[in-house]
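3.2 Worked example (two chains)
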Amino acid sequence: MLHETWKDNTPIKKIEVIHTDAQKFTVADMLTVGKQYDVINETEEYYQIVDNSGLVGGYFKTYFKEV
C-alpha cells in the first residue's frame, strides 16, 4: 500500500502554512503558521505532509502556499 511508505519517500516540494482557520476541523495543533513542510504526496484537493505530530497527514491546499 502506497501510504505505508510515504514517510520514507523523497519530498516532492516545499509548502508554507499561511493560516489555520479551519471551518470544520482543528488544524492549529498539527500545523504552525509560517512553518515550511515537505510535501510527500499531492492530490487535486489535498497535500499529504509530515506534520507537527511527526506522522503523515492530509490537509486541504487552502492552508498553504508553495515556496
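3.2.1 Second chain
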Amino acid sequence: MLRPLSEGVFVREVPFRTGGMELGGRMTVIRLPDGGLWIHSPVRMDAETRAAVDALGPVRFLVAPNVMHHVHLGDWAAAYPAARVVAPAGLRAKRPDLRIDGELTETPDPGYAAVFTQQRMQGMPRLDEFLFLHRPSRTLLVTDLAFHIRESSSWLTRTYLKLNRTYGKLAPTVLLKSLVKDKAALRTSLEGVLGWDFERVVVCHGEVLERGGREALRDGFAWLQA
C-alpha cells in the first residue's frame, strides 16, 4: 500500500488518467524527525490508504505542491484537522473552499525546515510549482514540472509522450513548456535546484528515478539554455 523507498520515505502509487492517457499518480509520505508525517500531493483517500498512513505516525503536514494538485486535499484536510495544510498562494484564489493554513514560500515552514529545502519554480505563474528536497535521503520531489514515464501499455500515452520527446526520460511536456512565461526566471530557479545534493527523483507521474537524478534533470531542461 505504501512502498518504502528509503528510511522514512514512502510512496503511494495510483492509476491516473487524463485526456485518455494513462499517466499514473503518486503521493509521497516522509517521516519527520519528531515522528510526524509530511505528505506531498495527497491522492484519493480510501480506508486502506488511511490505515497505512496512520500506521506510520500522526499527520503533521499536507502539501499541495502546485495549483493543479489539489483535488483530494480537502478530504485529507478534513480527516486530519490537526495537520497544517500548506499550498502556493494561487491556490487560495482557485479553491477558496479549501482550508489552507500557510502559503508556500522559498523559506520552508519551521515545522519541517530541519530536513527540507524548497524552491518556487519562477516563470510559470499558472502552475506555481514548488520543488522539495528531502536532504537526509537526497530525494527531490517533482510534481508536474517533469514526467518520467519509461514504459506504457497505452498506445495513446506512448504516442503523446514520444511527440513531446519525453518518453523514456525525465523531461517536461509541451504543455508544461507552453506555461512558461519567463524562461530566464525558470532557468534561474532550475539552477538553484541543480545546486542541491540529490540523487533520487520522485515524480508524481511516471517512475521513481533512483540514481542520476541531478544529471537527468539538467538534460531534460537543456532546452532552457536555447
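3.3 Remarks
Residues 124 and 212 are 26 Å apart (CA to CA).
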